[in-house]
Amino acid sequence: MDLLNIAQLIIVILTMIFAVWHYRLRKEHVLHLAFAVFCASSSMHIMAKLTADFWTPYHHLIGIFGFATCSGYWLFARAFFRNKNPINHHHLLFVGLLGACLILRHLLRFIEKLWLLETHWLPLVATVLSEAITILSSGMLILAFWEGYRVLQNTATTQRKITTIYLSSFMICIISVMLIAAALPATTLANGGRDWLVVFAYLLIITTTQWLIWFRQCQQKLREKNANPIAKDESAQEESSLAQQIETLLIDEKRFLESNLRVADIARELDVPEYRIRAIMANSFNAKNFNHYVNQLRVEYAKTLLSASDKQDWPVLVVGIESGFASAAPFTRAFKEFTGCTPGQYRKQQLAAE
Hints:
- The radius of gyration is 30 Å and the shape is elongated.
- About 25% of the residues are buried.
- The protein starts with a helix and ends with a helix.
- The protein is built from 16 helices and no strands.
- It is mostly helical.
- α1 (about 5-25) packs antiparallel against α2 (about 30-50), α10 crosses α12 (about 275-285) and α13 (about 290-305) runs parallel beside α16.
- The chain has two domains: about 5-225, Up-down Bundle (Rhopdopsin 7-helix transmembrane proteins); about 230-354, Orthogonal Bundle (Arc Repressor Mutant, subunit A).
């Protein structure tokens, strides 16, 4: 497997991950379903190219499932930029027409190569289908560009930036695959130059689109939060209550003494996402992260053990283990971070003070 095949395989895996991810979010907004269809089709399109050298003609059966690349992205663009009725029956009919042409062309090529048919009508039908596919896919690419361009001058600053990024990445991909590839010399094309441009285009459009979806969702959540003061108060009360529960678990129940304690354990016990625990560490406990806060509690506990007169014969390692550290090295590092000295030095200072 050469470097190009590896790059194509990475695109296949990446697009399938995004396809599954957004399909699971399809009930939140139709754009997730449209983007999932585009990613899944793109994955099959690249997979068909990847297997063409060693699995012909069966790679055409894989290519059948890559029927919604241009059309899938056009549907996504409509769902992304239009608020009301972005996808209707006539849009799906247009997409279905292109998809049927793509599927039929792959089937004809599969039949022709598998049974080595030599009929005068197969090449003619394949040519007609190819021309129809070129016209329909080009039209959908123009429509996908238009979806962004039509709102470019009529939006707020943030939305205008989103639209500009969308249009820029879209045009870079089109120029790379259509114009630059056409200008490449024949020797470069024979060595996979066009395939590298296709890989680049897919990587750019998928990562950029994913970022745009994430950014718009963040902006929408922020607007909803700022527009609803009651929700803000309720959210603050929820965070305060959750912080109290975390404090009860860690301090009152002394869970910080567990050497293998992780943020996932606390999140699972409180039935909340891990990111909320991490946010509370920073906002309510003024800690860098979960481990930083837990180590701070452990160090304070270790200080009481090192200062206790009845535990002066305890080795430093035993004190560290009793305080929740797994070994001496992390105990010493954490202790020095919070106190500026090692556990042994701290014990000597306490004895000298007494």
